[in-house]
Design goal:
Length: 1148
């Protein structure tokens, strides 16, 4: 019996792994499997029991083979789950290049004859005048004789089959004749100037052939070879590209002008100039040699700084075929290496590492070739059998090489398992060292300051792969590392000069921060990125937890084909230390004091004596005023002051053009001082209530209900005016008594008892403590100097039946839903206090959570969705408490972007959003909530939001936006995220017209039918400091008007509003204008009409409802103008009503 059970489990696992097992074996003894009982055939069970382990060879109980056991063990140990393995297989199918490239293969075969038939020509020394679209150093120009390429080879990922399907790029190495170069052309960029001129001549002749093919194949006097070349280039576009975005290393780009053949897709051919391996003196191209010498310098090159970047750039052209041979041998040895390279490219693309040419993308100088050669090195240095190595194992081995190598202290050599320590000179030469077999060519010479970020991401992904059950989205997700979803602070430079990615000699730098010093010949972009990261991170100190350098590719110049490149540095900050305005440095007598003064300058560094007697170097910053809602230029935050000072101090004129982006509200206090005082008053009031002696029952707890208790309220409501004339804010609290059998069973009687309890509270609070209070039948208002606490009583007996239906995890599919009144009482007396308590606990641990909730409420309000603050709180709590595939946000702006990302990418039709506020949800609870979600989808619209938690497992208490606007809101979230990215990266921004945050909060009014905009009677008076009470009263008036509109017009329309902008929008229901036998409820009458007698130009809305809207609902004295923005028949409506005044508002 034990064998039967084990073999059944193995067969179930093998059936799930069917795509990974070799041939499918037919079950023996299938003739006995006719009788099926519970999914297991009786004859098979009988045979298995009789035969035992040795005879269990028939039916579905046949013992698994060794290969099957190996596959099962690999799934459990390597992939963690079968789902993740299936996901990897699917993504590999998406990434694998298409097998059908008939036209491309034919074109490559014919291209060799075209290139060999290029005409010889003498190129003059003035390269810039000869080829105006190209860029040259021209330090020592020299003419040369152009000849056709000596050798033509297809190289790169297309030949090896490691290119991605989305970009089919075939690289063709064209070897330039050695006769065109002199013996010393490897010095002072002369080789690169001739290389660029060679590209210009190839481009000129190919472009002439393409023009001739479009004109009918050339003149009658043209030779047969040129005619055939024209034929082969028919339908081909010739352009100039740049290798690794380096304008001094151009290449010829060939692409078809029309659509590709069916199943082939678009492709590109790049002609990459190369040189013979013996052209350059290899012994003089080592990383410790100098090859860039100014005219008039010393003849001894050992006295000059080495040029490792320049030397590696030269060797890159000379070793194209050698590196192709390395990769070919590795692919022959490791069959799974091809798929591993595809996974690495997908991983690097998702994190913005691979160099991109499309405008508006972030990238690093990392190339697909670097990842490929790293994967080949990881496979060769591992101790596993090549035939047994899977693509995922090679992927993890490559990440391990990136993560475990200390690139600042170690260097790797291709094919050698152990690294070597760097010498002091080697450490200064490059930021990353991974050399060819002879130790001369550095594969990673471009990465410099970017290697630390790549290594950090590799460490993070390995940790996720080892700990999480479903790591696919976190590792391979397309938006796993989008800047707007991670960076709290961004510093972006203006576009750099052309050639910023080319090695160039620079002036020696002062060693202010050791990590910010770049090699002498490093590209300008790498030097600037390293300096920005080193200086700013040193200045921010413990405020900064991570600094991320990136490059931003700008728009492509049509005349030269080059794209602008900017440097952008993103920072992740620690919210706890942001507001510290005093930075303590070292002792004035220590050696570190010199570095501190050099970093901050004498104008900022000062000596201060502290109470313990120590005298320290300090940097003091202006403390911003408390209680502000957004950061301003006149009163910047401490972090902004630090960045601005360091940019002015160390980067000179470049500081004026740098853009510092810190979100729409900047860095403001997450936990306000007024809310802190509210908690102090609440704790005192709670103590008073718990000490009351005249109550017949003991108070169990006093719960905070208002959003101000969790620091997430935008504008708390104003308490009713009192005789003392003091302005106070109103805050709800709930008192819960201990369980007792003395509560009456009748709900109305229980409410009367609660009213008597409130009366007893008032008498004792007024008599013994002297607290003023006002009493009604349902609540008690107790006044403190700044606040008014509105007390309500909750007891379990009144809402027991409703709570059992709403909060029971077991899905009750056919139970009768509670009434709206019962749900509202349960929501206000039980659900909101518990949500507020958990939000307050999380906010104290993650201060940015409060700022993110307020910012998300502002964004929803700008979309006319005010009133859904609890929905916004649940979304923000989800992205903070379950942040996968990201890290936990550390700023409000990142929290807002994560909410927009969640709205845009979550599968609301098929997946519930479960928010675990306190980590107490079990797998059984989640299964029950999913069952409830699936049942609700069978009855409701599939596009509506469904958000649940432990306190609301069936999503009956949380009020979400209606299904009518759910798709529209998701689209607005996608557009808001795109607007944030454009502002972050400066896409479309110019010095005369910089991009602001207006696009983030822009409103798309096309979805609404009627817009009503309310304005204060006097805008100038509303801006005065003493009119804050009037402004809050005006907000409450708008909320009151919206409530009245909803109560009257809910049968025929949906009402949306923004309390801050005082805008109301109306969306008609589809059935609003159908014939009906009754009028609109609550006194809003409608004129009935006969659809059959309606004329072609009749305006149905003017017959039905809109004329009555102004008179019935805007109250006394409103001035109304209703702008009908969009209607089905294209007919607009304007109604003007004039009266006296109405609660200080006018409608325009």
């Amino acid at each position: 019996q034990l064998f039967v059970r084990v073999s059944f489990v193995c067969e179930g696992t093998r059936s799930a792994m069917a795509p990974h097992v070799g041939k499918k074996r037919k079950a023996e003894g299938s003739q006995n499997a006719s009788t099926n009982t519970g999914g297991v055939t009786e004859p098979s069970v009988k045979v298995a029991k009789e035969s035992g382990p040795a005879g269990a060879t028939s039916g579905e109980f046949k013992a698994p083979e060794a290969a099957e056991v190996l596959e099962i063990a690999r799934t459990q140990n390597l992939y963690k789950s079968n789902l993740f393995r299936l996901q990897l297989e699917e993504v590999l199918k998406e990434l694998a290049p298409k097998q059908k490239h008939a036209r491309l293969d034919t074109f490559l075969r014919n291209l060799k004859g075209v290139l060999e038939g290029l005409a010889p020509r003498s190129v003059p020394a003035k390269f810039a005048a000869e080829f105006p679209k190209l860029r040259f150093h021209e330090e020592q120009p020299a003419p040369f004789e152009f000849q056709p390429p000596k050798r033509i080879d297809v190289v790169g990922s297309f030949l090896l089959g490691t290119c991605m399907r989305s970009e089919t790029i075939a690289d063709v190495a064209i070897e330039m004749p050695s006769e065109a170069f002199k013996s010393k052309d490897y010095l002072n960029f002369r080789y690169f100037d001739k290389r660029a001129a060679y590209v210009g001549e190839v481009h000129r002749q190919l472009q002439a052939l393409c023009s001739a093919s479009r004109n009918g194949g050339g003149s009658s006097s043209s030779t047969s070879s040129s005619s055939s070349s024209c034929t082969h280039l028919a339908g081909i576009e010739v352009d100039i590209g740049h290798l690794q975005a380096d304008v001094f290393r151009p290449c010829v780009v060939l692409r078809p002008t029309g659509k590709g053949e069916l199943g082939e897709g678009q492709w590109v051919v790049r002609l990459l100039p190369s040189c013979a391996p013996d052209l350059l003196p290899v012994a003089k191209l080592g990383p410790d040699r100098n090859l860039v010498r100014a005219v008039g310098t010393a003849k001894d090159p050992t006295s000059l700084p080495p040029t490792p970047h320049y030397n590696s750039c030269l060797l890159e052209d000379a070793r194209m075929r050698l590196h192709l041979e390395h990769m070919h041998r590795a692919l022959q040895t490791f069959p799974a290496l091809k798929d591993a390279i595809h996974l690495l490219k997908r991983w690097a693309t998702a994190r913005g590492f691979l160099l991109q040419t499309s405008p508006g993308t972030v990238c690093t100088p990392l190339s697909g070739f670097c990842l490929s050669i790293l994967a080949a090195h990881a496979g060769q240095t591992s101790n596993i059998a090549p035939s047994q190595t899977s693509s995922f194992q090679l992927f993890k081995l490559t990440l391990t090489v990136l993560a475990s190598t200390d690139w600042a202290k170690q260097k790797l050599t291709f094919g050698k398992a152990t690294g070597k320590l760097l010498t002091a000179e080697e450490a200064k030469a490059c930021g990353a060292h991974f050399y060819d077999t002879d130790g001369l060519f550095n594969f990673l010479w471009r990465l410099g300051p970017f290697i630390s970020e790549i290594s950090w991401e590799a460490q993070r992904c390995l940790r996720i792969l080892d700990t999480e059950a479903d790591p696919y989205e976190a590792v391979f997700g397309q938006q796993a590392a989008a800047p707007s979803l991670q960076w709290d602070l961004t510093v972006r430079t203006a576009p750099l000069r052309p050639g910023a990615l080319c090695p160039a000699m620079s002036k020696p730098q002062q060693a202010i921060v050791p990590s910010a010093i770049a090699p002498a010949d490093a590209p300008e972009a790498s030097q600037l990125a390293g300096s920005l990261v080193g200086v700013l991170r040193e200045g921010l100190g413990d405020r900064c937890t991570r600094a991320v350098p990136r490059l931003v590719v700008g728009e492509r110049d049509a005349s030269t084909g080059a794209s602008d490149v900017s440097v952008v540095v993103g920072f992740q900050l620690d919210a706890i230390n942001l507001e510290r305005f005093l930075d303590r440095g070292p002792s004035a007598e220590s050696e570190a004091a010199k570095s501190f003064r050099a970093l901050w300058g004498r104008e900022k560094s000062e000596l201060r004596r502290f109470k313990d007697g120590s005298v320290l170097e300090c940097a003091v910053w202006a403390k911003p005023p408390a209680g502000r809602e957004s950061e301003s230029k006149k009163q910047p935050a401490v972090v902004t002051q630090i960045v601005q000072h360091l940019l002015r101090k160390h980067f000179g004129d470049r500081a004026a053009t740098c853009d510092i982006v810190s979100g729409p509200s900047g860095f403001v206090t997450n936990l306000g001082d007024r809310d802190r005082r509210l908690w102090v008053a609440f704790e005192a009031f709670r103590a008073h209530l718990c000490q009351l002696s005249s109550l017949p029952l003991t108070i169990k707890d006093v719960h905070a209900v208002d959003r101000a208790f969790s620091y997430t309220a935008l504008s708390p409501p104003v308490a009713p005016p009192t005789a003392d004339g003091v302005s106070r804010t109103l805050h709800d609290i709930v008192v819960e008594f201990e369980s007792s059998g003395r509560w009456p069973d009748d709900p109305m009687a229980a409410r009367k008892v609660a009213g008597a309890m409130l009366l007893q509270m008032k008498e004792e609070l007024q008599g013994d403590l002297g607290l003023d209070a006002d009493l009604t039948e349902t609540f008690l208002d107790v006044r403190f100097p700044e606040f008014v606490f509105r007390v309500q009583i909750f007891h379990e007996k009144e809402l027991f039946e409703v709570a059992r239906r709403v909060t029971n995890f077991q899905a009750q599919a056919h139970a009768t839903p509670p009434s709206d009144e019962s749900l509202e009482r349960l929501r206000s007396l039980w659900w909101r206090p518990r949500i507020r308590s958990t939000c307050h606990a999380q906010v104290l641990q993650k201060p940015a959570l409060a700022g993110a909730m307020r910012l998300c409420q502002r964004w929803l309000g700008s979309q006319l969705l005010a009133g859904y603050e609890e929905f916004a709180e649940h979304l923000v709590a989800s992205v903070f408490l379950q942040p996968s595939p990201f890290e936990t946000p550390t700023s409000p702006q990142v929290g807002l972007c994560r909410v927009c990302w969640l709205l845009d990418t979550h599968d609301w039709e098929r997946e519930p959003l479960i928010v675990d506020f306190d980590g107490k949800l079990t797998s059984e609870d989640r299964l029950s909530m999913r069952s409830s979600f699936e049942h609700s989808r069978n009855e409701a619209e599939a596009s509506s939001f469904w958000v649940s938690s432990r306190f609301d497992p069936h999503a009956m208490l949380l009020q979400c936006p209606p299904a009518t606007v759910s798709v529209w809101l998701r689209r607005r979230a996608h557009q808001a995220l795109a607007a944030f990215n454009r502002r972050l990266l400066g896409i479309g921004s110019t010095p005369s017209a910089p991009i602001g945050w207006d696009a983030l909060f822009a409103l798309d009014t096309s979805v609404f039918d009627v817009l009503v905009r309310l304005q204060p009677p006097n805008a100038e008076d509303a801006r005065k400091k003493g009119d804050r009470l009037k402004a809050v009263a005006s907000r409450q008036a708008v909320a009151s008007l919206v409530s009245k509109l909803r109560s009257h017009l809910s049968p025929v329309c949906l009402i949306f509003h923004d309390t801050d902008d005082r805008m109301i929008a109306i969306k008609w229901r589809p059935t609003a204008f159908f014939p009906t036998a009754s009028e609109c409820s609550h006194g809003c009458s409608a004129t009935h009409y006969d659809p059959a007698s309606r004329g072609a130009g009749a305006d149905l809305r003017s017959q039905c409802l809109v004329p009555h809207l102004s008179y019935r609902l805007l109250g006394r004295g409103a001035h109304a103008g209703l702008d009908h923005c969009r209607c089905q028949r294209g007919i607009g409506i304007r109604q003007q009503v004039s009266r006296a005044s109405w609660v200080g508002l006018s409608v325009t």
